Amino acid sequence: MKDALFRVLDPKDDEFAKMLMELGVKKNVARILAYMKNQREVTSRDLELGSGLRQPEVSLAMRELREMGWVSEKEMKKPGKGRPYKMYTLEKPIREIIEELEEEKKKESQIVMENIQRLKELVK
After folding, report:
1. Could you give the CA distance from residue 7 to residue 98 in angstroms, rounded to a whole number?
2. What distance in Å separates the CA atoms of residue 57 and residue 106, rounded to the nearest whole number?
3. How many domains does one find in the chain?
């Protein structure tokens, strides 16, 4: 058996993921971002082991992250025989991703406040 070293989420990463979830980010996406925030390129297996997610959960989260333009994917050939594996890369620094979330929440907040103002006008 081969010993392998891989990074796992620590308490600070767990807090990061929890804060993302409180902003409305799905749990699996939040755990992936928490794992990738300090590593720009990881394999799907690294993500499974490090984030504590199962392979289908990683696949679904990565599809969502690719659709948002935050992550890219490429297939890498294994030396010798075997199926290729996927390598994922953050397309934006984590600070830019946080700024995108901030802008989204500002817009949502503005819409809520406009609706409240309109409700007040309707009861006059």
Report:
1. 22
2. 29
3. 1
- For the entire predicted model, the pTM comes to 0.84
Residue type, 74: K
**Does some domain include residue 3?**
no
**Structural domain containing residue 44:** 11-92
Cβ neighbours for 94, distance < 8 A, ≥ 6 positions apart: 33, 36, 37
Over residues 48-101, the pLDDT tens digits come to 999 999 999 999 999 999 999 999 999 888 777 778 888 999 999 999 999 999
CB hemisphere CA count around 67 (13 angstroms): 7
110 located within any domain: no
Question: What is the DSSP track for 21-84?
Answer: HHTT--HHHHHHHHHHTT-SEEEHHHHHHHHT--HHHHHHHHHHHHHTTSEEEEEEPPSSSS--
